[in-house]
Amino acid sequence: MIVTINNYYQPGWRDQQYTCDACDWQGTSRAMEMELHDEQTEYSCPQCECPVLVVQHPTLEDVKAAAAAGNEEAQQQLAILEMAPKG
Fold first, then answer.
1. Contact yes or no for 32/23 (Cβ under 8 A)
2. 25 and which of 20, 51, 63, 66 could share a cystine (Cβ 3.0–4.6 Å)?
3. Going edge to edge, which strands form the sheet with 40-44?
4. Which residues pair with 48 in a beta bridge?
5. Which of 23, 58, 20 is nearest to 67 (CA)?
6. In a 10 Å sphere around its CB, with 0-12 CB exposed, 13-18 middle and 19+ buried, how is residue 51 labelled?
């Protein structure tokens, strides 16, 4: 079963142990193959390449809400976005 993370700022998802349904490999997202898409990132098993994890990318509103709640990563991302040229 592919695990879907809808809240990018959910604590611990990067270091949580996941299991590949196809080959029973176990590990964290940091050990998986990562494929970046426009609205999500897919993580695949490093042994058999079957999808294991999908992480939805945050919207601007998600970033702002997480930053306001004190999430350091969101605060850094928001600062980067605010430095971007307007127009």
1. no
2. 20
3. 3-5, 51-56, 40-44, 33-36
4. none
5. 58
6. middle
